[in-house]
């Protein structure tokens, strides 16, 4: 697995990864973004820019260098966390391209990820519904609605290459954080099943390496979530009514403690899903128990 200092993933450089897809890595590595947010340029003669990334002058300059004067037909955002969409408006102002893609979302996120708070400045010129397309010379991008990580999350299928640009729904290095109130585990699992039912040949995630056996990865991620749900149920069976930090301390042994607050958000998402299915319930003092 690559690291933040991998010479094959230099920050700011355009790396061509398929005949129609290039990638530029933003300078925002962290425990949550891995090596940083990967902005994708789709097309050769004219372009679509997917997930323009943070509003960072160095990154925007790198994108303009990679665009190299070519027409930009669309700037597309998979979702509106602040490491994905804030550069959309300055890049649109510089290129004249419309901002197209996910719906705006200004819900306050009470989770632990300051770098992933929602981008309140995002104002699309056109919202893409599921199955709607944007096209240029030799490329067609189709929106695939994948709520779960966020309620407004879209993936984009590159029809000509059988590729799927997956944003944060499926990443090449880690599972996504599902953080209520907007993140929803039931939606996430339904969206994962939707991807499992597709026949994409490769995934290009916003964080981490390309995925060349995507259905195997999706099956593994779904299995991981089901295993985590089972751990939660067994913990509550053994211990009775319990607080989420106690569950995290046992279930995430060996994980960097700095990631425990984010893990707690995913545990909460599992518990809310279990509540909706009549398996667990909150009892009013921050504890959860089986029904």
From TrEMBL:
Protein name: MBL fold metallo-hydrolase
Entries under Pfam families matching the protein: Lactamase_B, WHD_BLACT
Residue ranges constituting the Metallo-beta-lactamase domain according to the UniProt record: 36-207
Transmembrane segments: none
Naturally occurring in which organism (per UniProt): Sphingobium tyrosinilyticum
Gene3D superfamilies in the record: Ribonuclease Z/Hydroxyacylglutathione hydrolase-like, Winged helix-like DNA-binding domain superfamily/Winged helix DNA-binding domain
SUPFAM superfamilies registered for this protein in UniProt: Metallo-hydrolase/oxidoreductase
CDD domains for the chain: metallo-hydrolase-like_MBL-fold
């Amino acid at each position: 697995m690559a690291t933040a200092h991998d010479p094959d993933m230099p920050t700011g450089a355009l790396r061509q990864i398929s005949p129609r897809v290039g990638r530029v890595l933003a300078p925002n590595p962290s425990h949550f973004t891995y090596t940083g947010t990967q902005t994708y340029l789709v097309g050769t003669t004219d372009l679509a820019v997917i997930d323009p990334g943070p509003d960072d002058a160095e990154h925007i300059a790198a994108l303009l260098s990679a665009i190299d004067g070519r027409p930009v037909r669309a700037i597309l955002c998979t979702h509106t966390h602040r490491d994905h969409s804030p550069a959309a408006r300055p890049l649109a102002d510089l290129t004249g391209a419309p901002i197209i893609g996910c719906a705006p979302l200004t819900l306050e996120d009470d989770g632990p990820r300051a770098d992933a708070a929602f981008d309140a400045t995002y104002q699309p010129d056109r919202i893409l519904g599921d199955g709607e397309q944007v096209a240029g010379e030799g490329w067609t991008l189709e929106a695939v609605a994948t709520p779960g990580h966020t309620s407004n999350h879209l993936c984009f299928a590159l029809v000509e290459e059988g590729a799927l640009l997956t944003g944060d729904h499926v990443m090449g290095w880690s599972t996504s954080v599902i953080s209520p109130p907007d993140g929803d585990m039931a939606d996430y699992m339904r969206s994962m099943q939707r991807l499992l039912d597709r026949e994409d040949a490769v995934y290009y995630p916003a964080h981490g390496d390309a995925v060349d056996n995507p259905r195997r990865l999706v099956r593994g991620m779904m299995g991981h979530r089901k295993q985590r749900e089972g751990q939660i149920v067994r913990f509550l069976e053994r211990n009775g009514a319990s607080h989420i930090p106690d569950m995290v301390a046992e279930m995430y042994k060996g994980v960097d403690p700095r990631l425990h607050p984010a893990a707690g958000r995913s545990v909460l998402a599992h518990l809310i899903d279990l509540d909706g299915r009549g398996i667990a319930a909150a009892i009013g003092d921050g504890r959860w128990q089986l029904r």
